[in-house]
Amino acid sequence: MKKSPISPSRLTALLAFMAIPVLFTGCGDASDAVGTEASASTDFDLHAVGLVPDSHFFLEVNLHDLWQSPFATTLQDAIKAEPEAGENFTIWKKEIAEKTGMDPEDFRSILISGNFAEVDIAEVMEAWDPFEKMTEQADFLWTLTFNKPISEEILELLSDPAAMELGEIDEKREFAHRDLPVTHLTFVNSGDPDMYYSLINNEQAFLFSTRESTLLASLDRFLDQSKNSQSEATTANLARLDGNQIKASFVLPENMKTILRQQISQTMEMDPMSGMFLKPMLEWEGMLFGVAVNEDMNALAVQDFSTESAASGFAGTLNMMIPMALMGMQSEGLDLGPNPMEHVRIEAVNNTVEIGFSITNEALVKMVEESYQSFQKAQTSSREAAMKNNLRMLGSASNQYFLEQGRLEVDVRELIGPGLYIHGIYPIANEVYGSGSGDNRTPGLAPNADGQFPVGEWTISEREHNYIYAEDRDTGKIIQYTF
User: Fold this and answer.
1) Are 43 and 205 in contact (CB under 8 A)?
2) Nearest Cα residue to 284 out of 258, 318, 248
3) Residue 298: how many CB atoms within 10 A of its CB?
4) Gap between the Cα atoms of 34 and 23, Å rounded
5) pTM for this one?
């Protein structure tokens, strides 16, 4: 049986792979760019083309402005200052170029929108994969834009599931729409929705939808430079998020309200203690989220309710929960200053609750440094624990051998291998193992990839008071063990 073609969830994961590391890796020099030089481009209204009519949901990420912001530059500089982290980001940047045929600076924006008017929420909630079922029933449109014509590598990743080893294409059709030589790639597979793709704007924009009519309507808006018919709520949310590089909005559709409220009521009946937290959500109408990045980063989340009392109750819940969450972050070693709540604003305004969060460049650098130090500490601790476990296995095996054989020393070859006491001592890092302690330590030996040591070069002896050790050659740390 053939596998399904590339699914929207797979597409979303692919977009995340292409987009998220780019913010941190930076733009790079123009000389590093990979791919074809940009051709003349006709600007188009992204919102008019990319938002399906009466959208209940949209997510827009302006990658270009994020990359160019002073805040992102500071973040990149802080990461690059840490040798290991800087090396990892260089590797990620190289991987992006290799897999996509484009440099990170060539990615411009991502816009995903959806209309849920035809969604049977009860059927979605009972589905084995709710996200897939939602995608089948909703009217979704993905729009990606680039600063140069899209590369063959990205087109293959996005439109050819066989290239991603997800299965075979049952049918692939190509045709033109009106007078514009755009290409549609249609995949048909039993049990899954068809998937439609198109390149527009001198191949600098990529459109994807699970409905042919949705894609054709988007192309018509592009050709006619016409505006879309948006709901008042979506139009208002776009206006409220103007100037943000990350924009997200969700307006709860009428067909979902009843089911959601039934679920909340049932939960409250089973767990009365949750009532004080969940009761305001019975009147929840939707939310929006925005992130504005310049010198500093400012995030804003707005929750909409049908009554002022629900908004007030939700704000009260947040004022209890967020300080506790920040205290937990500090207990994990993240320094948020003497008053963590100074970065947060929670305010009930009429029927809405606004949650604002800000972070300065200085605080960002400090958080990056502390997070990296905490990561290094945890990584070192984990490596040391793993090496100590190797020593413990060697000690236990040696004791068992001495007991069974009545001898006082053993060649490590007699302990390690198939059918012996230990299957293998596999290297954790760049470490070596040996016997003895202090100035009496034998030269350390490194295990190979098969978990074996060099033939006949290490003997563990009770005459050395059962001392064995491991040395991490990267850090110089010596872990002593007595068995």
Assistant:
1) no
2) 258
3) 15
4) 18
5) 0.67
pLDDT in tens, 167-202: 455 566 676 777 776 666 665 543 456 778 888 888
Residues 6+ positions from 333 with CB-CB distance below 8 Å: 370, 374
Question: Which residue, chain included where needed, has tokens 């943000």?
Answer: 244
Q: How far apart are CA 44 and CA 39, in angstroms?
A: 15
CA distance 137 to 119: 5
Using DSSP's 3-state secondary structure scheme, residue 378 falls into: helix
Amino acid, res. 266? Q
The answer to whether 187 and 172 have CB atoms below 8 angstroms apart is yes
Side-chain half-sphere exposure of 306, counting CA atoms within 13 A: 10
Q: Which helix (H) or strand (E) holds 109?
A: strand 107-115
DSSP 8-state symbol, 81? T
Q: How far is 219 from 4, CA to CA, in rounded Å? A: 26
- Radius of gyration (Cα) for the chain, nearest Å? 29
C-alpha–C-alpha distance, residues 279 and 376, integer Å: 43
What angle separates helix 8-25 from helix 130-137, to the nearest 10 degrees? 100
70 touches 294 (CB < 8 A): yes
Paired tokens of 129: 């994969």
Give the span between the Cα atoms of 399 and 481, in whole angstroms: 13
Contact, 333 vs 374, CB < 8 A? yes
Q: What are the structure tokens assigned to 476, written together? A: 């110089």
DSSP 136-203: HHSEEEEEEEESSPPPHHHHHHHH-GGGGTS---S-EE---BTTB---EEEE--TTS--EEEEEETTT
Both structure tokens of 257: 């309200």
- Whole-number Å distance between alpha carbons of 149 and 129: 35
What pLDDT digit, counting tens, does each position of 339-386 carry? 767 778 899 989 999 999 887 777 766 766 666 666 667 777 888 888
Q: Which residues contact 177 (CB under 8 A, 6 or more apart)?
A: 184, 198, 216, 219
